[in-house]
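Reply to dn_fold:

You asked what the input looked like. This is it:
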Amino acid sequence: MQFNFDKINDRRNANSSKWQVKEHELPMWVADMDIQTAPAIIEAMHKDVDRGIFGYQYVPDEYYRAVASWYKKEHNFEPDLDWLVFSNGVMPSIGSILRHLTDLGDNVLLQEPNYNSFYNAITSNGRHIVNSELEYQYGKYSINWKDLEEKLSDPQTTAMIVCNPHNPAGIIWDRETLTKIGKLANKHDVLIISDEIHGDITMPGYDYVPFASLDAEVTQNSISLASPSKTFNLAILHAATLFIPNAKLRQKVEHAISVDGINSPGIMSMDASIAAYTEGHEWLTELRQYIQKNREYVEDFAKKNIPDIKVLPAQATYLAWIDCSKLTDKSDEFNQFLRDKTGLYLAEGTKYRGNGNQFLRMNLATPKSNVEDAMQRLAKGITEYKA
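and this is what came back:
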């Protein structure tokens, strides 16, 4: 491979949220990588720093052209440049959309288990969570369409957050499924907010479907959000793009993020993002392959050595969703036990709600040696837990 993803990068004492742990602990919980970003991005950042002037910046047209070109090459979809809006991040934008485009007391629909930050974004802004829980059977999730429409039909439900690819389960919702969701949302006048931050991290042989690539009858009622942050490990840059085909809706969102002060780029976000979207294709191709190998190792190790758990096959994300239902229905307590006994620090599924109380989430975007260490610790911890 051209890029060395096996390199161990010491992130302790570097203000890393993930690595603020004890010396013997191995953190594999939060969704950022232990892998250095693409060299072209680092070079772009060096140029910004070397100028030595850190004044205000604007979003150049080159940024939007880079985003559109990236989507055309990576996802066979070229968005209209007029649709694209820059913001400081996906979650800040979702909070802003909820504050300005829905009313206090409104319902926001989710499909649990789901990304935990959605819950706080909804409730802290005075909105209510409505759950149309994903059905789980034989190691697979599916949508309960009858329940979904019932929840969408409630007059108090004014927005639905779609997570595609799905975090934590790694599902890519196909075009038919997304279209059906979009039509139901249209029917009941519910705004679709599509979080697509994991869209680039698909496993080899798979691709995700951007909501904005669907037919106009459903995209006119949608806001999609993407970012290079997960793709290239650039969370600290605070850069994201909103895809909003409907001009009136776009104006409302532009006003919302302007009022909330999240529409201006940081000093390194522009050049770094442009470098990512124009020069990051080969790096991402190799990263996908590397993560897939880590995923295959975890699945194979579990089958051979830890029959009490099941690692769900995933089409996307660098996260492994691990079914521990044979061992526990309190994954938060189980996760703490593993951490106390072995130092392995995973994400407890309870925070994702739904049936997450029977799951753990493991981050695979790390050198393989860490993955091997993690699985040895997991096997040891489960043996002690059973004893």
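The mean pLDDT is 97.
Hope that clears it up.
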